[in-house]
Every structure is written in structure tokens, then in C-alpha cells.
Amino acid sequence: MARIKNIDLPGEKHTCIGLTAIYGIGRPLAKTICQDAGVEASKKIKDLTEDEVSALRKEVDKYVVEGDLRRDVQMSIKNKMEINCYEGVRHKKGLPVRGQRTSRNAKTRKGKGKVVANKKKAGK
User: Are 4 and 25 in contact (CB under 8 A)?
Assistant: First the structure.
């Protein structure tokens, strides 16, 4: 099993698919990394030699991935919240940030419905 950036890559998958287990690497970047490293993209990860794995490691080191990328994203969000821009305000309130509707969707972002106390109606 190959280990790159402290992530165990799934051995049964092709190299270009397995690389996507690393945060910040998608399919297109994975294909680019395989080409630049000289590794066949359709080769299974468990069949890679040590030289191929080290070549992949060197290529992945050229990009901002995993911990560094997560830190950058969190710092960006925190900065937006501090300067009170629109996106930052939405992050603070726990609402969708990218323009989605909230009247009938956004359950993932808003969370479970909150019960509002109902006043009793005045009798006749």
C-alpha cells in the first residue's frame, strides 16, 4: 500500500483514481501528476514499484495539498468572517454561502428544524 502525504492510498484502485484520496487532488490533477511522474495511470496502486511511488511523491510535493490546503481554506474563511463580507456573514450564520435558496432547501447547512414556541390562540 502506497503512502503519500500521510494518506494510505487504496491499493485496489487505479493510480489516477487512488491519488484523489488526497485532499486537493481531483481527477484532472491526478492525471497530470501521473503523466509528469511517468507512471501509467491505469496501473493499480498495489502494483506500483518503490521508484514509481517516490516519483509520485515528488510530483505531489509540487502542489499545495492536504494540511497546507486545509489551513489555507480555513484561514480564508476566517478572514472573510472577520471583515464581515457577505460570504463571511453567511458562514457565521450557518447558511449557504454560494447563492442557494434557503426557503425550501439547505437542510444540510441549516441543520434540523428549530421548534418555534406557539402562542395559544385567544378563545371566544
Answer: no
- Output the pTM of the full model: 0.77
Q: How far apart are the first and last CA of the chain?
A: 75
Q: Which pLDDT score is estimated for 2? A: 85
| DSSP line for 23-37 | TT--HHHHHHHHHHH
Provide the pairing of β-strand 3-4 with 7-8: antiparallel
- Give residue 123's pLDDT: 64
**Both 38 and 77 in a single domain?**
no
- Please report which residue ranges of 6-123 form alpha helices under DSSP H: 15-18, 27-37, 50-60, 66-82, 86-93, 107-110
Measure the CA–CA gap between 9 and 21, rounded to whole angstroms.
Answer: 7
C-alpha cell at 80: 472573510
CATH number at residue 39: 1.10.8.50
